[in-house]
Amino acid sequence: MIYSIIRFPGSNCDWDMYYVLRDVMNVVPQFVDYREKSLPQDTVAVLIPGGFSYGDYLRSGAIARFSPIMDAVKKFAYAGNPVIGICNGFQILTEAGLLPGALRSNDSLNFICKPQKLVVENNQTIFTKRFDLKQTVMFPIAHGEGNYYCDSATLQDLKDHHQIVLRYQNNPNGSTDDIAGIINQKGNVLGMMPHPERASEAVLGGEDGKMLFQSLIESMTQNV
Amino acid sequence: MMKKLTPTEIRDQKLYLQWGISEDEYQKINDALGRLPNFTETGLFAAMWSEHCAYKNSKPLLKQFPTTGSQILQGPGEGAGIVDIGNNQAVVFKAESHNHPTAVEPYQGAATGVGGIIRDIFSMGARPIALMDSLHFGELNDAHTKYLVDQTIAGIGDYGNCMGIPTVGGETTFDTIYQNNPVMNAMCVGLLDINDQQKGAAAGVGNAIYYVGAKTGRDGIQGAIFASTEFSDEQETQRSAVQVGDPFAEKQLMEACLELIHNHSEYLVGIQDMGAAGLISSSAEMAAKAGYGMHLNLDLVPQREEEMIPYELMLSESQERMLLCVKQGFEPAVEALFAKYESEAVKIGEVTAGDRYQLTFKGVQVADVPVHALVDEAPVYHQPSQKPQHISETKKQQYQPKIENLTKTFQAMLQQPTIAHKGAIFERYDSQVQTNTISTTQSDAAVVRIRGTQKTLAMTTDANPRYLYLDPYYGGQIAVSEAARNIVATGGIPLAITDCLNFGSPEDPESFYELEQATKGMTEACKLFDTPVISGNVSLYNESNQQPIYPTPMVGMVGLIENPAWITTIDFKKSGDLIYILGETTAELNGSELQKMQLGHVEGPLFNFDLRYEQEQQELLTQLIHAELLNSAHDLAEGGLAVGLAECAFASELGCDVKTNLTATELFAENQARFIVTIAPDKQKIFEAQVANRATLIGQVGGKRIKIATMDDVIDVDLKNTKESWKGALAWQLN
């Protein structure tokens, strides 16, 4: 059971994800280079970490989606397997069309890094089943382009299908409907701007993020 | 394009004067070569003999600094200094100033300052784990300063954030004196496996000189010379001397270099950043350090602009470039490794026997000079020094503040931009990437863990230029002491320092006096605290139209916390905890934030300072922390006891009830060597036995108000409201 972490040029939360999975969650992570054309055979989940893939040139995530590995990621997702994109990973997933909407510049136009209270809006997903519905959790954010946008029809669609998984309690960046994280209709592709991997050890200020990884790992173990 | 003059035209038209070479220096160059230097050679000497590269005015002063110690693996002279922290690990750090570029083009100036200091760290074989900064701006009352602040912050943030290196702390102050000359200092800290330690040396005849990273353009040409002259009203024309940064390119370059060093060190002889004075300084220094000559073919230098001439190629300060010396036979392996990171690696020359530094371009030799003349033979000047008039003629009395309404004075103090919460700046930096940041603003020094060990590093940057302006000697002692105090209050043992000496023109005797006295004071403090100076830089000529900045020696200090139980933060922990003050408070207000707030400037003789007493106080605090008696500790700095107590409360959501036998004025005194500590009530006996009479009980933690009673007046304010206005003050003033 391998948790594959996709590494693009400019990814910089790759090791943070790796250490949380290996040292805190005790599962087996493996880096996958963006030039690969396939995922490791035993991959049970794909994680796309934060960072500045291709320096955020053009638009964040806009170039990464053309990387060779993305065909394999899409195939993996279409087959119903779990894919999480965090921060830049979320931006890549929207650019790749695996999730609806887009991430724009924060309305302050500034990068923002600080802990942020989130409300769990859907705990019926493989990624969030350990949380209570409406539970408040604290994850840090660290982004310049985290302002989620979608048109009103898409927003209605997201609501109708319970795709809004996390909302900000105090919207920091202008996101539509306070959206911090969404899931696809099938329920296997999650994108979120906040960083659960930065909130998985008490010594770093909180452990709420662990529950997200626990949910995923339990879902994987039960599937076997 | 520049017009190339012949050697005799250079002599006759005195082109060298424009490039900062004096008549005497020009004669020395003639003597070293035994002929007139040509256009390219004149440029090489101008860069290498600039203050920025050669420290020709500051060298005699820098020599006093202690630079060695049992813990020091590498002192000044390489990309960065290295300190052993045990278990085959070492911490690598250095700070650098980018004041002139930041003044002219703040976004790129600040960004490339960060980029440059990061390269210094990974050139030593270390992975950068943290960034810090030290910023001094003018008052926030004009649009240009607000623009400078905004763009400087954006530049620092965008570079570090993209590189994935957390910016964990720093300081920002505001004073009119920096209106036209902001100070931008950046520090980078790296972690090194001692087996991976590198040097910037090019040895072994026939070994290859590799240029790796970004292409060379015309940006930053003469940057080192630019940094070694004063600003005048024509500074706008110097915009072309500012470099442009690309953090994505540097991230790729860093990963490639670290893979080369960590996994294939057998390919490598030496590695160095192309920083100030670009290709010339890196290549000449690598050759000189190893005792070899070098030949470079400039046609091979990757170029992004057309028709660049040798002078431009050698002096460009284009960013994200490194120079490697690669062992013969490993050239294809190195090229393949860099190709993996889509980073260019081009062989541009080789190590030669002897001492000649030779450049060819389009088949013609364009420079042939003894490398030691370039690197080691810059003249050294002992500049005249004179006590500044404002010190020699000052009235010998302490400032007598007027405090009509203590609560109002307290609240006004909390709104001062230097005191106010720095979230509006700090939250624009990614402080958490790499998931090792344990504390940023909750402690006097930032705390970063060393993964896989019990150890953490404490780090801080400090300068209080107002103290130095009033008394550069004691101010220099205080700068080092304050940094040590911040490390100690966080539970660390100071290891070493790096510095950026930001001063006015050394050719002005009063400015030189400040540099001389400040470095003397710093030297004494560094010796006493056993914190050698392992790296740093000098930024002189920080003046506009003959107005120098305050003497601003930034001290960047790193300390080691061996036991996680010793990590100490400033926030009040529990209602009922007892609050003590360590150290003595007097009514000496010269140099204080209160004097600055009320008069608009500081003046008079600085308050008394005793270095030995400071050390004793720090040792006491360390004993208390190691005995695990303290629930919190905070050093007292700008704004004195009143502000210090407020900061402990703001960090915690818990108020305090304090009664002191001080006067209202003394609440704002900035005597050094003081701490506020809190303890659990059940530890009172053992604590008081340990401190004897060296700490005074002043109150208790608890409640929703900050209450501070003095002999003559009382502060009594609502915690939440006061915190909100302290938190919002800077953002409001930046708008």
Automatic annotation (TrEMBL), chain A:
The main location is: cytoplasm
Q: Give the active-site positions.
A: C87, H195, E197
- UniProt xrefs under InterPro entries: Class_I_gatase-like, PRibForGlyAmidine_synth_PurQ
Biological or metabolic pathway of the protein:
Purine metabolism; IMP biosynthesis via de novo pathway; 5-amino-1-(5-phospho-D-ribosyl)imidazole from N(2)-formyl-N(1)-(5-phospho-D-ribosyl)glycinamide: step 1/2
**SMART domains for the chain:** GATase_5 (SM01211)
Q: Which one of the record's GO molecular function terms can you name?
A: ATP binding
The catalytic activity, as recorded, is: L-glutamine + H2O = L-glutamate + NH4(+); N(2)-formyl-N(1)-(5-phospho-beta-D-ribosyl)glycinamide + L-glutamine + ATP + H2O = 2-formamido-N(1)-(5-O-phospho-beta-D-ribosyl)acetamidine + L-glutamate + ADP + phosphate + H(+)
Which keywords has UniProt assigned to this entry? ATP-binding, Cytoplasm, Glutamine amidotransferase, Hydrolase, Ligase, Nucleotide-binding, Purine biosynthesis
- RNA-binding: present as a keyword of the record? no
The EC number(s) attached to this protein equal 6.3.5.3, 3.5.1.2
Q: Which Pfam families match?
A: GATase_5
Which GO BP annotation is one of this protein's? 'de novo' IMP biosynthetic process
Q: Which GO terms describe its cellular component?
A: cytoplasm
Answer yes or no on keyword ATP-binding. yes
Top-level taxonomic group: Bacteria
What is the recorded function of this protein according to its Swiss-Prot or TrEMBL entry? Part of the phosphoribosylformylglycinamidine synthase complex involved in the purines biosynthetic pathway. Catalyzes the ATP-dependent conversion of formylglycinamide ribonucleotide (FGAR) and glutamine to yield formylglycinamidine ribonucleotide (FGAM) and glutamate. The FGAM synthase complex is composed of three subunits. PurQ produces an ammonia molecule by converting glutamine to glutamate. PurL transfers the ammonia molecule to FGAR to form FGAM in an ATP-dependent manner.
Task: Kindly give the PANTHER family that the UniProt entry links to this protein.
Answer: PHOSPHORIBOSYLFORMYLGLYCINAMIDINE SYNTHASE SUBUNIT PURQ
Quote the subunit structure annotation: Part of the FGAM synthase complex composed of 1 PurL, 1 PurQ and 2 PurS subunits.
Protein name in UniProt: Phosphoribosylformylglycinamidine synthase subunit PurQ
Gene, per the UniProt record: purQ
TrEMBL record, chain B:
Specify which residues bind Mg(2+) 1 according to the UniProt entry for this protein. Answer: E96, N537
Which Pfam families would you find in this protein's record? AIRS, AIRS_C, FGAR-AT_linker
- The residue ranges of the PurM-like N-terminal domain are 77-191, 443-561
State one molecular function term (GO).
Answer: phosphoribosylformylglycinamidine synthase activity
Residues in PurM-like C-terminal domain copies = 205-361, 574-705
Q: Glycoprotein as a keyword?
A: no
CDD domains membership:
PurL_repeat1 (cd02203), PurL_repeat2 (cd02204)
Pathway assigned in UniProt: Purine metabolism; IMP biosynthesis via de novo pathway; 5-amino-1-(5-phospho-D-ribosyl)imidazole from N(2)-formyl-N(1)-(5-phospho-D-ribosyl)glycinamide: step 1/2
Question: Catalysed reaction per UniProt?
Answer: N(2)-formyl-N(1)-(5-phospho-beta-D-ribosyl)glycinamide + L-glutamine + ATP + H2O = 2-formamido-N(1)-(5-O-phospho-beta-D-ribosyl)acetamidine + L-glutamate + ADP + phosphate + H(+)
Enzyme Commission code(s) on record: 6.3.5.3
Task: Tell me which residues this entry annotates as catalytic.
Answer: H52, H98 (proton acceptor)
User: What does the entry list as the binding residues for Mg(2+) 2?
Assistant: D120, D273
User: Which cellular components does GO assign to this protein?
Assistant: cytoplasm
Keyword annotations for this protein? Answer: ATP-binding, Cytoplasm, Ligase, Magnesium, Metal-binding, Nucleotide-binding, Purine biosynthesis
Instruction: Supply the enzyme class, top level.
Output: ligase
| Subunit | Monomer. Part of the FGAM synthase complex composed of 1 PurL, 1 PurQ and 2 PurS subunits.
UniProt similarity note: Belongs to the FGAMS family.
Listed name of the protein: Phosphoribosylformylglycinamidine synthase subunit PurL
